[in-house]
Amino acid sequence: MIVAGFGFRAAASVDSLREVYGRAIGSRRVDHLATTTDKASSPAFTAFAAALNLPTVAIDAKVLTGIETHTQSEASQAARGTGSLAEAAALAAAGSNARLLTARVVSLDRMATCAIAFGDGE
């Protein structure tokens, strides 16, 4: 299973998510989108997921705490307890033995991040 994990600011738009997703996925086919439970119901994220017709995985923020990530954001570490919300969400949703295929990519407007992980989905 391939999962696109997202972190984004409250003011992020569908365009922000679409742009960073497009740069992160390359030619891959993604199976699910993932972010934290508190962000999963945001209007931009739900509209983006609906436009792609992809299921979403809402990850409890506590699960993400301490997940080792390739990139390190001080803001993410302080707010979420992990170096990259996008990477941690992708890894958590991809299941056991998950590995990053694409480390965190930051949108051009700096409102959203996306990372891609592969795992067995369990």
Characterise the protein shown here:
The model has no long low-confidence stretch (mean pLDDT 91). Strands 3-2-1-5-4 form a five-stranded mixed sheet. It has six helices and five strands, in the order E-H-E-H-H-E-H-H-H-E-E. The termini are close together. With 122 residues, it is α/β, with parallel strands linked by helices.
Sum this structure up briefly.
With 122 residues, the chain is of the alpha/beta class. 39% of the residues lie in helices and 25% in strands. The radius of gyration is 12 Å and the shape is globular.
Strand content: 25-35%
The biggest sheet amounts to: 5 strands, mixed
SSE string: EHEHHEHHHEE
**SS-based structural class?**
alpha/beta
| Mean pLDDT over all positions | 91
Low-confidence stretches: none
Tell me the total number of β-strands. 5
Morphology call: globular
Provide tags for this entry.
122 residues, alpha/beta, 5-stranded mixed beta sheet, 6 helices, 5 strands, globular
